[in-house]
């Protein structure tokens, strides 16, 4: 608490905490906290940072459907600094039309993070620090949610970026643990005191992922919102537009962030009914206009949007898995549209693959606005149980947890080298370094 008070006093009254001779506080040169939030239009609906999935094409598409703040995919600060030209070419996308947008970095070294952020700050409205990635690659690389208990290090990181950048610093975190929320509050206090302007809390711990996913803790987010003096974004548990509104009302947060909900339904925040066939076709159009630097992004998005249908039309699932061009993607999407007709209610969407028994937050199941799968012979999906086998990881291109933290590097490495030791040389510089 003494440290937090000293930092606050220095930033309010001047570098030495004594203020100016005339007694006037030092004027800040950049907007922070709520002043910054006002300057970017007080956004309500936010697209989460997702590795290989919150690329420019998807960001622009979701903006058309109600998103008013986007994040880039997570960028690795060390790799960015070591070879910025190569790393930017393979991972970096910005556009003046994509505003406001925060660029997200991961890492554990304050100076490296600052060096990377300074090369990107001119293209974005803020720099976000990834403290939410729960994946094993983050554990090996010592970043993301595996830093949540290292308050001293995180204070240094945020303070270094706050003092060294011309734009605000923000943080995306998870609950530190499931047994003592005070630990999460203490971390948030430290981040705020160190200079964090916006904080996003995912209402789950790093252990609550995949098949261990639990209902997001909105009550914890509500408590955090009541304690912070900066804008708070809620993340987790938003499957429908009604969920988003309920979360805003229940927690009092400044904005709602979605990852997996938007992957399944990019029009989630519009509140409108849009068929998955139309969404898939629209995404392909955006991807042609803003070609993703990560070539697998288009395929991954189509697998998620078309997930309910692909569980039945397994031949098209396999065909999509082998597609590599826009013409091939369009052919799969067009064939899927031609085989199916009529809206239906479904619980088989991408969002619910790990949440089939989870009760809906807003009182009713979401409507899956895809169409009833129909075979060539006209049989309904219910009459074709043999067609409902789950897609393989290779066909669907891996999986994206909410928060988006499974990298292409790791997925490719697992497929090519199931044994980590003899195949290390094949994994590429980034994967080898993290391993």
From TrEMBL:
Range of residues in the leader sequence: none
On whether Chaperone is a keyword of this UniProt record, the answer is: no
Bias-annotated ranges (Acidic residues): 392-404
SUPFAM superfamilies assigned: FMN-linked oxidoreductases
Point to the regions of Basic and acidic residues compositional bias: 408-418
PANTHER family noted in UniProt: TRNA-DIHYDROURIDINE SYNTHASE (PTHR11082), TRNA-DIHYDROURIDINE(16_17) SYNTHASE [NAD(P)(+)]-LIKE (PTHR11082:SF5)
Q: What is this protein called?
A: tRNA-dihydrouridine(16/17) synthase [NAD(P)(+)]
Tell me what organism the protein belongs to.
Vitrella brassicaformis
């Amino acid at each position: 608490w003494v440290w937090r008070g000293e930092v606050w006093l220095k930033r309010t009254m001047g570098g030495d905490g004594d203020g100016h001779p005339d007694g006037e506080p030092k004027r800040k040169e950049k907007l922070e906290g709520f002043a910054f939030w006002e300057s970017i239009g007080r956004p309500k609906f936010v697209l989460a940072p997702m590795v290989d999935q919150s690329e420019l094409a998807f960001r622009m598409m979701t903006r058309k459907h109600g998103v008013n703040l986007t994040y880039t995919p997570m960028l690795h600060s060390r790799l960015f600094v070591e070879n910025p030209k190569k790393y930017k070419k393979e991972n970096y996308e910005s556009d003046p039309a994509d505003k406001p947008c925060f660029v997200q970095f991961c890492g554990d070294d304050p100076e490296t993070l600052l060096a990377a952020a300074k090369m990107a700050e001119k293209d974005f409205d803020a720099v976000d620090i990834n403290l939410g990635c729960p994946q094993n690659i983050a554990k090996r690389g010592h970043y993301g949610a595996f830093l949540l208990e290292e308050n001293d290090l995180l204070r240094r990181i945020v303070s270094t970026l706050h003092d060294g950048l011309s734009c605000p610093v923000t943080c995306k975190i998870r609950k530190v643990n499931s047994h003592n929320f005070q630990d999460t509050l203490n971390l948030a206090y430290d981040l705020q005191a160190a200079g964090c302007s916006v904080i996003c809390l995912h209402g789950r711990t790093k252990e609550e992922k995949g098949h261990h996913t639990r209902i997001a803790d909105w009550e914890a987010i509500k408590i955090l919102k009541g304690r912070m003096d900066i804008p708070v974004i809620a993340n987790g548990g938003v499957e429908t537009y009604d969920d988003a509104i309920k979360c805003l009302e229940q927690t009092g947060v400044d904005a709602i962030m979605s990852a997996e909900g938007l992957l399944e339904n990019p029009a989630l925040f519009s509140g409108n009914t849009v068929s998955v066939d139309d969404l898939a076709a629209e995404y392909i159009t955006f991807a042609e206009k803003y070609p993703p630097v990560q070539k697998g992004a288009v395929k991954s998005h189509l697998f998620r949007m078309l997930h309910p249908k692909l569980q039945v039309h397994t031949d098209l699932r396999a065909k999509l898995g082998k597609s590599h061009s826009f013409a091939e993607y369009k052919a799969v999407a067009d064939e899927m549209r031609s085989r199916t007709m009529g809206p239906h209610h479904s619980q088989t969407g991408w969002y619910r693959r790990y949440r089939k028994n989870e009760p809906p937050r807003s009182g009713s199941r979401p409507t899956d606005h895809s169409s009833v799968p129909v075979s060539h012979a006209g049989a309904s999906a219910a009459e074709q149980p043999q067609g409902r086998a789950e897609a393989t990881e290779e066909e669907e291109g891996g999986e994206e947890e909410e928060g988006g933290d499974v990298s292409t590097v790791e997925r490719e490495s697992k497929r090519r080298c199931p044994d980590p030791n003899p195949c290390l040389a094949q994994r590429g510089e980034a994967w080898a370094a993290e391993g």
